[in-house]
Structure formats: C-alpha cells, structure tokens
Amino acid sequence: MGSYSVLAALPWPVVPVLLILAVVVKRRFLSSIRDNPGPFLASISSFWKVQQIINGHIEEEMLALHREHGDFVRVTDNEVSVGHPDAVKHLLHAKIAKGSWYQVFSIPDYRFVSQMSETDPQRHIDKGKNVAAGYALSNIIKSETYVDDIIATLKGQLNSLIESRKPVHLDKWFNYFAFDVVGEVTFSQSFGFVKAGNDIGNAIANARKLALYVSIMGHFVWFHNLTIGNPLMSTLGLIPASHLFDTCVAAIDARKKNPEARNDMMERWLNVRNTHPERMTDAEVFAAAAANVGAGAETVSASLQALIYYLLQNPMYLRRLQNELDMAQVRGELSPVVQYAEAQNLPYLQACIKEAYRYHSSIGTNLPRVVPKGGLTIRGRYFAEGTLLSVNLWVIHRNPDLFGPDSNSFNPERWLDKERAKTMDYFLVHWGAGYNQCPGRNLAHFEINKLAATLIRDYEFERVDPKKEWSFKNHFITTPCDWPCRAKRREMAGV
Length: 495
Ligand code: HEM
Hints:
The chain crosses the membrane at residues 6-25. It comes from Aspergillus cavernicola. Helix content is 55%, strand content 7%. By secondary structure, the protein is an alpha+beta fold. The protein folds into two domains: 1-30; 121-489, CATH 1.10.630.10. Helix 7 packs across helix 16 and helix 18 packs across helix 21. It is globular and about 85 Å long. The N and C termini lie far apart (90 Å). Bound molecules: protoporphyrin IX containing FE. Protoporphyrin IX containing FE is lined by residues 115-116, 182, 291-292, 295-296, 299-300, 303, 362-363, 367, 430-432, 436, 438-440, 443-444.
C-alpha cells in the first residue's frame, strides 16, 4: 500500500494533525537554524513574533532574550535576530535584500511600490536616486520660514492652554506638529492639525491602526495581497490604508490648485517624472508621498517626546540644557523660533537629541534581511541562503559594550567626549543604515532641533503625575502617549 492510500485509510481528522506534526518536526528539528535558541513557539511558526507585536513590546522581549541567550535568537521558524554589533555591518550596511515583510508597506496595494516596500537592493537604490533631491537638506532648509510659522502657531496653542490652566498633552501636539511639517515640506501646505488643535478626521488614530495592521500582516503578505491589499479593495476604499491614501490624494489635489505651491518635494519628484518618465511612474510619485505621510510624523513625535520626557525624569540634564540655551539667548544667538543653523551651535542640545534617538528609538520592531546566495557567516555562525536575519535597533542601542555600563539609562553626557562619540556614532543606527537608511533623516533632525530648542528655552514643563510612566505600544513605531504636563512660560523665553 502506497503512502497515499495509508493516509486515505485514516479517519479524516488524523490527516491534518499528522501534516501539522510533520511541519512542526521539520521546522523544529531539521531546519538549518535549529541550533539557535529562543522560545519554542518561535521555532515552529511566526505566531510567537506576531503575538509580541500585538502585545506591543517586542523591543523589551528582544532585549531580554538576547541577554539570556546571547547574540543569536530564533524569532520565527525562518528568522534569527542578531544582537551582536556586527549585525550593523553585515546586515544593515550590506547591499542585501529586505525581507518580504516590507512588501506590505505598498500603500494602498502592491501596485504602489515605495522605497520602503521595495525589497530588491538595486531597484531600491534606483528609486532612492529618483527621490533624493527632495530630501536634501539644502531643499528642506527652503521651507524653514513655513516650519517657523507652524512652531509659532504651536506656541500660541500652548500659551492658551497655560492661560486656561489646562494640561498640555505633548504627545498630541508633537504628532500634530510633525504631520503639519510633512504636509508643508512635501505639498507646500500644512495639514492644519496644530491650528485646529485636534486629530482632523482621525488621521492619527487611523495611522496607529495601520501601523499595527502592517506590522502583523507583513508576516502574511500573500494573504494580505489576496484580501485587504487587493487592488479591488483599495479601489472600493475598504482598506485600513484608505485613510492614508485619501489624505495623500486630497493633498496632491489641493497642491495642484495651490498657486503658491513651492519647489517642494512633490515638485522635485514631478520634475524627475516629467524629464525621465522611464525612471519614475505616477504610482511611484504617489507612493513616495504616501511613505512620507506614513513614516514622517509618528517617528518624529516619538523622538521629540523621548527627549522631553527623559529630560523631565533627569532634571540635572534639563537644567544644563536650559543653561546652554539661556546663555546663547543672552548672547543674541537665537531667533524667536530657533533656526536650524543656530541649534547646530549648541553642543549640549545635540548630545541630548542623540541620546533621545539612542535611548528610545522610534523604530522598535526587528528589521529583517534575506541571507544572499552563498550564505552568510556572522561571528563564526553560518546561515544558509534564504534565511531571514533581523536586527532590533533597541538591542544595538542598549549594548553596554558599545555605549557604556550605563547604556540602560538616559545620559546625554556620554556624547560630550568627541573621541568617544566618534566610536559610538557608527552604532547609533536610529535611522537604519546602508541603502535602507531613512531618507527623511534631514527633515526629521531639522524639525526636532528647531522645536526642541524653542520649547525648552521658552517653557517649563512639569508632569501632572510624575510617578505615572507614559505608555507606548511598539507596533513598528514606538510613539508614546498619556503623560500630560503642566506648562509655564520661562523668563528667558524668546519673543
Ligand atoms: C526621528 C524620526 C525618524 C526616524 C528615527 C526614522 C527612522 C527610520 C528607519 C530606521 C528607517 C529604515 C527602516 C529599515 O531599515 O527598514 C526609515 C525608513 C524610512 N523613513 Fe524614516 N525615520 C524618521 C523620520 C522620517 C521622516 C520625517 C520621513 C519623511 C518625511 C521618513 C521617511 C522614511 C521613508 C520613506 C523610509 C523608507 C525608506 C527605505 O526603505 O529606504 N522618516 N526611517
């Protein structure tokens, strides 16, 4: 009797159970990554990892597992998380493909491939060249006066809250601010969140739902493409990404009618599209705009929040920073809204911002890469072609061998020694590294510098309940919430 007829003779429920058992045994005991330690469930499926993402603190799990097991931890049946610093060189800097997880970032569906969702290194680099001019600092600086206006409006809102003795929810204001800046720099028009003082059309609430959705469904891209990521669904507007899609369509339409549209990012991309139609399609221009709106707000908000929150937890550092700002103000070196160039001359501010990037990285889930042809050896351990190797930025950033024995504490002063900072800089990978490095980093750093310097110079913040920790869920982006403050104006305040 052949094996088929043996199976046919069994009662039907036994067959699927046997098949599942065979898959479990194969993944657990026969896989080429079977010797890498980790939770049992992780060795047989993606469900352990997905569960951690849903729980919202995979960064804590990864820190704990790497402390327990060392450099290599198996996180799915085909993925190993690499915690050793060599991962920065071998995985982030290397020109190797990104895992299929990223494909789910094609918003609203797989026809709209952005830099983020492009997994092939060469195609990704080509796409990067098409959009690079828009992200150049020299281009972003041209929007400085418009960003100044958003900061002035935000200060107006804070002053009203102070007058009416209401608490200040910086988590919300920083999100509104970052969304408005993306609008201004990409489409020559802020979305108007700061002025309205609320989450217009639930855009931010929807962005969070979308982040949870993509970070889970990236593990099941085939299913996503068949269902929610099917072009038919987006055409009918039935998908979680439709809000982001609609926001971009509306912004692009408004821009077309705006006689004051500047030489903004859109303009730069449309120039490439018009002069080299063979290099860039309309869908790509749209995808780049959607990537900005999707990636450029919550990330910035997370870093700004971390900066202020941890300075409030560590008043000694806050006083030193205020002192630096006050001295610069007295010397007449700061404008009413601090200019980017002015902020660059404040070394303590720079140290504090770097420490916020390190201590609370905005991107908190593992970033997967595919082992290329011929395999890859890291720290003497060989990984076969096709295996996923991933890096969690929190694991790199909290490594005491790289950042000192107090790597688990917020201490901006570790950055003040220039020689030491130089060695640490290579491992400060909050923007990622290599060909996948964040293209929005100039914009993010620009706006964070300006807003942080202006607010810390002009206001004193105090937590309403200093004993209560903030809360945050790491669904790819680690944007915190729920830490209301009382604010008052400082005597040194700029005009
Ligand atoms: C503090 C703020 C920010 C941080 C920490 C940050 C971090 C990152 C990281 C780590 C990646 C790479 C992920 C990977 O390797 O897979 C990334 C990608 C990306 N970021 Fe940012 N980002 C920030 C702000 C922004 C802003 C303001 C924009 C645009 C306006 C932006 C646009 C993008 C895009 C389009 C990608 C995908 C690029 C690619 O895959 O090549 N980001 N970001």
